[in-house]
Amino acid sequence: MAKILFRLNGVSDDEANDVRELLTNNAIDFYETSSSNWGVSMPAIWLSDDDQFEKAKALLDAYQNARTVRMRDEYDRLKREGKNKTFVDSVAQNPVRFTIHLALALLVIYLSITLVLDLAK
């Protein structure tokens, strides 16, 4: 019976490709499911053979530990060089989108407060 190894929700393409390559290089048989149009089904990498799960899990854990160290080192390097992306950088890059999101958030807060105050009367 198939067993899920790695969920692909919110995973970057490079990480998903690395996991696929890791499994292929170690002769671990897997298949992939994608999300549906409405996001109901779960995108994931599944193992076809349950007997390979322990080996695959150990390989995946080692890969993720190494990736964590690599990503932290890269973040620290960018931070030291002053090249890491901050909130202000994101706002400056897309001011229209930020303004729209802020206006929508304020509208929701206003409507929520108005509803509560109207109900309190």
Structure summary:
With 121 residues, this protein is mainly alpha-helical. The chain contains 4 helices and 3 strands.
Write the layout of secondary structure elements.
Layout: E1 3-7, H1 13-25, E2 30-33, E3 44-47, H2 53-81, H3 87-93, H4 95-120
Antiparallel strand pairs: 1-3, 2-3
Description:
- By secondary structure, the protein is mostly helical.
- The protein contains 4 helices and 3 strands; from the N terminus they run βαββααα.
- Strands 1-3-2 form a 3-stranded antiparallel β-sheet, with helices on one face.
- The longest helix has 29 residues, at 53-81.
- The termini are far apart.
Mean pLDDT: 93
What is the H/E string? EHEEHHH
| Global structural class | mainly alpha
- Report the span from N to C terminus: 60 Å
Tell me how many strands there are: 3
The backbone outline, from C-alpha atoms, is: flat
Annotation keywords:
single chain; 121 residues; mainly alpha; 3 strands
